[in-house]
Amino acid sequence: MAASLSVKALWSASALRAPLTGASAISSHRLFHSSRAQFTDSKESTDATTPAAAAEAEAEAVAPVEQKLPFRRRNFNKWLRTEGARFATPSFSGPNYIGETPFPMNPLFKPTPPISNAAKEEIYKLHRADSTKHTPRQLGTTYNISIKRVEAILRMKHLEKEMIADGFVAQENFTKGMEQLMGVKAVRSEAITEPLVDILPQVGSPKFEAVDEDKTFTAEDAAKVLKRRPLAEIKSRMLEEERQKPFKLVDSIKGIPQVEAAPTKAVSRNSAEANPRFKFAFQDTSKNNKGTFIREKDGTLHQVQKA
Fold it and tell me: Which tens digit of pLDDT belongs to each residue from 33-66?
């Protein structure tokens, strides 16, 4: 009868001597399967484990946990498995909006792609090469952007060069990645244009003027009725102001008056404490070595001397 059994259990001698409980009982018992059918079934079940079956098993295991989550969280997880699954591998050929616009509740807002960093660098180099020839107005006309945007690009690029010279490390890879995600093109489309100057006068309540059909009514006549200067006169005045006060780049770091530094004394130098971007000043409040210390970018430690 013992030969007909498909499974034989062999218990260790320690289990027979004294009863065990908990993890000790589980570890001390040894179960051996001598059935061929049992071995074949376990092998077939192992071979049947495919990615689809694993995903189904994972979904079944997650289902009880999902039931315990709040309603909003369950909907969010469902969205991640369906529509939101494409955001796990975003496209680098353009923006990755949930809909067609960045704000689904405002479909009328359709922003244009930003100007590439290469175009900004080119604008800055042209202006630095010849500021009288490549003025903000001329650069705005060439690149189809407003004068204010050109001036902002020139100031930001000038500040960037100063910071790099002062030890700041520019995140160029981050800029390239963001340009790919925003769909920035190396050559800006000619269809994207901005007015050079936005002239927005203060508009009050509407005014009406009765005019005969055969009478000419020009922009100058409209300006007289509205008691304002004609638009052509406003533009010419702005051009004259640009000639009298041309755009100039100002060194934002060098232009600030420097405060006379207090005398210091070199204490030590540790290359491991070097930082190419910043220097640190800290106050030591210990009893034996009170005072103010400055850690330079090269790792040198200076102690500020009392006046």
Answer: 444 444 445 444 444 456 666 656 666 665 666 6
Two structure tokens written together for 237? 């005045």
Using a 10 angstrom Cβ sphere, with 0-12 exposed, 13-18 middle and 19 or more buried, the burial of residue 140 is buried
pLDDT greater than 90 at residue 236: no
**What are the two backbone dihedrals, phi and then psi, of residue 82, each rounded to the nearest 5 degrees?**
-110, -90
Question: DSSP per residue over 119-172, as a string?
Answer: HHHHHHHHHHH-TTTS-HHHHHHHHT--HHHHHHHHHHHHHHHHHHHTTPPP-H
Question: What's the rounded Cα separation, in Å, for the pair 155 and 161?
Answer: 10
Cβ(127)–Cβ(142) under 8 Å? no
> Chain-centre distance of CA 121, in angstroms?
20
- Residues near 12 by Cβ (< 8 Å), separated by ≥ 6? 28, 29, 30
Residue 207 is classified by DSSP as -
